[in-house]
């Protein structure tokens, strides 16, 4: 029974990540030279090179069973309902059963990709695909109406004889829909229209692959690629990128065509500027290996630049000290190797990313308005070392509770302490004179500390130096005594931190860590909503909470591989259920 429940989903789950969100969020990698290359996933030689994103996912039932053990009873129930809808839509509604019609001939992976929609001319004819270059050419002209993306799925055929026998039944009583036939470049294509908005096209290529597309245009483009057009398999740098993140345990692989996906994802309110387009076109792609482990899911990821890109990454993996300066009870931490360099790269990235939550101009303006200081000249200029921003609970809230009031602590290694002290003195004067904060100088563990207290708002800020060159600032709850002197038990000694933060990248350029289980889903959701300026409407917030509820903690480690590629590994530590959910009975359509 359990085997049947799991295997009946394998085909439909290949499309679930993309279809559920209507073509938006997650797609994965598929590459194979004509036709076999162990370094690349199946189907790469068939997917057009301008695919926005692509997915290759294992059909191994043991891995699917492992995946179904993660989460909470509530998240598993939602997961099962979504899969059941997809099963009914793609299999049951067409008279198919996975064990009978798919499993006998299916290979070890299924793959899917999203192709960019073509433009339409004023006469309604299709034109070339949307790319960053064509988008830039038409930036000042009226944008023509575009059609929806094509979803393409590639299923490798391990048993051609069984596949032929089964697939030939598509016009028989097995399927209630009417199929028609046509031919394109010598390849026979079968098509059916489900309703006014939904149709499917299928073709068998060289007895090795069954290709399914959500429209005839997608299947034609795959055949073009099969006959020699540029494919995902020969995308510049892709094979080399996969070799750097290779792992024989992988469950799925991800590829994102960064320039094409960025253009396709833009909205009318978030147009890419010419400078932004120029920046984004320096990028080539992002790839990730997804591995299922006993306590969660690991993502080994890499992004890289185009061969002709003028941009180069600075190789400076200098992070490592900050987790040693934070206490073991730290709820969240983000760190990096060089704040000055990080800010410069953030400014560049913000120009090419319309989704950047905090624009550099806004931050500069806010600092100037609040303090009179120039963000770049008076602050960032002396912050040329390692840094961290963290949430730390007070000792009074160290026990599990629903009411944690953490304080914020910012640490940065100064590259010019004399300039730092001068500008911090200016900031203190502004806080005292303009905002009437009371300034108190004190000692904490024989270290001088300056406290700034608002008599009306009750806000407290503290600042000082941990050693000769690490400045710290705290805000909110009184947590200065948690870091001065150095904590007796460091964050690096926390077992959750140690088991969540990926440790393979050494040296590295920083970490991200968040203890969602300890901080609570509501607090985490509120924090993420603020940081990413998410919509406050109830639906968005409920969806965010539902997505966070199965997660215990998240850890990220980043590193610059070379001057053209950067690595970042992610581990999502998940809650577990005793056994996977129960798939609802198929919703068989009436005859």
From TrEMBL:
The superkingdom of the source organism is Bacteria
Instruction: Enumerate the residue ranges of region (Disordered).
Output: 121-145
Q: Which InterPro entries match?
A: DUF3352
Composition bias type Polar residues, residue spans: 128-138
Q: What is this protein called?
A: DUF3352 domain-containing protein
């Amino acid at each position: 029974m359990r085997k049947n429940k799991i295997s009946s989903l394998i085909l439909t789950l290949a499309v679930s990540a993309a279809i559920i969100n209507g073509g938006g969020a997650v797609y994965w990698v598929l590459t194979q030279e004509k036709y076999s290359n162990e370094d690349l996933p199946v189907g790469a030689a068939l997917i057009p090179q301008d695919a926005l994103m692509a997915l290759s996912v294992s059909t191994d039932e043991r891995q699917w069973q492992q995946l179904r053990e993660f989460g909470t009873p509530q998240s598993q129930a939602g997961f099962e309902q979504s899969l059941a809808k997809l099963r009914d839509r793609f299999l049951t509604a067409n008279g198919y059963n996975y064990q009978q019609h798919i499993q006998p001939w299916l290979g070890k992976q299924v793959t899917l990709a999203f192709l960019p929609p073509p433009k339409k001319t004023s006469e309604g004819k299709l034109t070339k695909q949307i790319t960053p270059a064509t988008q830039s050419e038409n930036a000042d002209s009226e944008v023509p109406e575009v059609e929806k993306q094509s979803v393409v799925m590639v299923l490798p055929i391990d048993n051609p004889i069984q596949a032929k026998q089964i697939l030939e039944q598509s016009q028989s009583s097995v399927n209630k829909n009417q199929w028609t036939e046509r031919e394109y470049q010598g390849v026979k294509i079968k098509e059916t229209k489900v309703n006014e908005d939904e149709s499917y096209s299928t073709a068998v290529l060289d007895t090795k692959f069954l290709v399914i597309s959500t429209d005839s245009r997608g299947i034609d483009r795959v055949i073009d690629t099969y006959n020699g057009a540029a494919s995902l398999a020969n995308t510049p740098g892709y094979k080399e990128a996969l070799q750097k993140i290779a792992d024989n345990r992988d469950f799925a692989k991800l590829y994102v065509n960064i320039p094409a996906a960025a253009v396709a994802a833009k909205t009318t309110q978030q147009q890419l500027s010419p400078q932004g387009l120029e920046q984004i076109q320096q990028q080539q792609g992002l790839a990730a290996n997804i591995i299922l482990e006993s306590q969660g899911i690991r993502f080994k990821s890499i992004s890289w630049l185009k061969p002709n890109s003028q941009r180069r990454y600075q190789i400076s993996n200098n992070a490592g000290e900050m987790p040693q300066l934070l206490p073991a009870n730290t709820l969240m931490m983000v760190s990096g190797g060089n704040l000055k360099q990080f800010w410069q790269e953030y400014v560049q990235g913000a120009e090419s990313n319309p989704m950047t939550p905090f624009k550099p101009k806004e931050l500069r303006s806010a600092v100037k308005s609040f303090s009179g200081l120039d963000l770049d000249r008076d602050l960032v200029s002396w912050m040329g070392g390692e840094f961290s921003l963290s949430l730390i609970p007070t000792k009074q809230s160290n026990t599990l509770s629903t009411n944690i009031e953490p304080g914020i602590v910012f640490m940065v290694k100064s590259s010019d302490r004399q300039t730092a002290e001068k500008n911090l003195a200016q900031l203190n004067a502004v806080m005292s004179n303009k905002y009437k904060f009371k300034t108190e100088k004190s000692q904490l563990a024989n270290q001088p500390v300056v406290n700034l207290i608002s008599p009306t708002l009750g806000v407290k800020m503290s600042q000082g130096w941990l050693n000769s060159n690490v400045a710290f600032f705290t805000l909110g709850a009184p947590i200065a005594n948690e870091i001065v002197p150095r904590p007796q038990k460091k964050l690096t000694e926390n077992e959750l931190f140690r088991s969540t933060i990926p440790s393979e990248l050494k040296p590295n350029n920083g970490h991200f860590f968040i203890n969602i289980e300890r901080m609570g889903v509501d607090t985490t959701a509120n924090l993420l909503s603020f940081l990413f300026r998410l919509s406050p409407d109830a639906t968005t917030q409920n969806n965010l909470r539902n997505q966070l509820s199965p997660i215990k903690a998240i850890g990220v480690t980043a590193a610059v591989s070379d001057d053209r590629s950067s690595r970042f590994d992610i581990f999502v530590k998940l809650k577990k259920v005793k056994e996977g959910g129960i798939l609802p009975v198929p919703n068989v359509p009436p005859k």
